[in-house]
Write a structure and sequence with these properties.
Blueprint (H helix, E strand, L loop, with lengths): L1 E5 L5 H13 L1 H4 L5 E2 L9 E5 L4 H8 L5 E10 L3 H9 L13 E7 L7 H20 L12 E7 L3 E7 L21 H11 L7 E3 L6 H10 L44 H24 L8 E5 L2 H13 L7 E4 L15 E4 L35 H7 L5 H15 L2 H17 L4 E6 L4 H5 L5 E7 L2 E9 L7
Parallel strand pairs: 5-6, 8-9, 8-11, 9-10, 11-12
Antiparallel strand pairs: 1-3, 1-4, 2-3, 4-7, 6-7, 12-14, 13-14
Length: about 475
């Protein structure tokens, strides 16, 4: 079978590395042969691979960076909408789902000659519905909000590819987050960034503006070998229930992934493989718990000036099935110090920027990590043509960054500028020897910190173009 694993723009290389690691697992090898496509050298919005059908279960359970796992159903040339109808109506959809299940169809495109993607979507939807009606005598209902089955088509200038979505709800929805309005950073983007930093569980990780804890929770789950899909897969049984506030009804242990609502995956042989994958993961978790029996044994900590967010972080940590309570303090980032006994490590943060900054006066009041960005339920992460369009702008990126930097400097709140200046000085004074990584849409941030970045990586947080800046903080010379 052919799969296309979708990811946030800019994370194709880390995703390819992750897919290779998943393929090398003993339980994955037991499913059959895996062949990962070559790592993309330019943004593609994801990575392709050939693997057995059962690989969809392993990918959805283990991939931290993926947004969706799409199973390729057909690929063919096209010239007009009728070609799409003909291809889709010729597929045996009745072998995958029933007319009693609800359906959603999405179409994305890159340089397609068709005038209307909405009409293209309608033709593919009609083809699927007509096929099921002709075969079963009944037709499925359309549900764009809570569909049982998702079909996606992607159009290039000459080719159409039709996929079945095996993920259902986007994979960044792990099931542990209890608040949605304060979480602009998606979990799979956080996991991809951790991969880019090169952080390993044996290293110290610190986030001085941790907010609701996305970076730190993802890191802790990596250290403890907890799969990203552990809650959605029902691995913990009744001990872990997905949050009621941030996730749609289909993110449950019974219907956590799209493949669980597809006929082939409900056959006895596939159910046995699914149970085996989860049992193998549980055994790994138990082994890692011996190494990290409590939160203090993990070299992972954070701080935030906002008391509400610190409390939210603690709740999210517990729902993520992590031991005890996180090592976190309510503290101003300007006075935060490295964790005790650690003179160097990795600092990773996603500071508020632009209109997200809340300044309410003096130094001791709320500032910094008070988020008001919307955790978008209608996520654009599967619109991977966005990555293609923006990714091809790399030749113009340097000049565009310069322009954005100038615009950001003109629009910046003077109080925020002063905060960044002070924070940059604080990093120089206190965090010598550390590697500091900052994710931001503010292209002027290095200048505001008054620190020269050693590396910048273009990334996309949903539709928002960002940079991951790396700063190497040098130790102060002894006088």
């Amino acid at each position: 079978m052919r799969f296309f694993v979708v990811c946030p723009g800019g994370l194709e290389a880390p995703l390819a590395q992750e897919l290779a690691a998943i393929a090398k697992r003993a339980d994955s090898q037991a499913l059959g042969k895996w062949v990962i496509d070559p790592t993309p050298t330019s943004p593609t919005g994801g990575v392709g691979l050939a693997a057995p059908l059962s690989a969809a279960m392993a990918l959805n359970l283990h991939s931290r960076i993926a947004s969706r796992v799409l199973l390729q159903m057909a690929e063919a040339p096209y010239r007009q909408e009728e070609d799409l109808y003909r291809l889709a109506s010729g597929l045996a959809w009745e072998e995958w789902f029933s007319s009693k299940q609800t359906l959603r169809v999405d179409v994305t495109a890159h340089r397609s000659p068709l005038k209307s993607l909405n009409f293209a979507t309608l033709k593919i939807k009609d083809a699927i519905v007509d096929r099921l009606r002709d075969v079963t005598g009944d037709r499925p209902s359309i549900d764009t909000a809570f569909p049982d089955v998702r079909v996606q088509a992607h159009l290039t200038a000459t080719q159409v590819t039709i996929y079945l979505d095996t993920s259902g709800e986007a994979l960044f929805k792990r099931g542990w987050r209890d608040e949605k309005g304060d979480a602009p950073l998606k979990e799979n983007l956080a996991a991809g960034i951790l991969s880019i930093t090169g952080w390993k569980p044996a290293q110290t990780l610190f986030d001085p503006m941790c907010g609701s804890g996305t970076f730190l929770i993802e890191a802790a789950q990596i250290a403890l070998a907890i799969p990203s899909g552990a809650i959605r897969s029902g691995m913990y049984g009744d001990d872990a229930k997905p949050s009621r506030l941030a996730y749609r009804p289909l993110v449950t242990s019974a219907h956590g992934f799209g493949f669980q609502r597809l006929k082939p995956f409900n056959e006895a042989a596939e159910q046995k493989r699914w149970a085996s994958l989860k049992e193998s993961s549980l055994a790994e978790i138990l082994e890692k718990r011996k190494q990290y029996p409590d939160a203090e044994s993990l070299s992972i900590s954070g701080g935030d000036i906002n008391e509400k967010l610190v409390s939210m972080f603690k709740s999210n940590w517990q729902r993520a099935q992590l031991p005890g309570l996180p090592v976190v303090r309510q503290i101003d980032a300007l006075v935060a110090k490295p964790p005790v006994n650690f003179k160097e490590g990795v600092m990773l943060l996603n500071p508020p920027y632009g209109e997200r900054l809340v300044l309410k006066g003096g130094r001791g009041q709320e500032r910094g990590s008070e988020r008001d960005a919307e955790y978008d339920e209608q996520e654009p992460e599967n619109r991977f043509e966005l990555n293609l369009e923006t990714g091809r702008q790399s030749a113009k990126r340097s000049s565009r960054d310069s322009l954005k930097r100038l615009q950001a400097e003109e629009e910046q709140d003077p109080k925020f500028v002063e905060f960044l200046r002070q924070f940059g000085q604080h990093l120089k004074d206190v965090f010598g020897g550390w590697n500091v990584f900052v994710l931001t849409a503010d292209m002027a941030l290095p200048g505001q910190l008054r620190i020269k970045e050693s590396k910048r990586t273009p990334l996309f947080n949903g539709p928002l173009e960002c940079r991951l800046f790396k700063f190497e903080m040098h130790q102060k010379r002894e006088s």
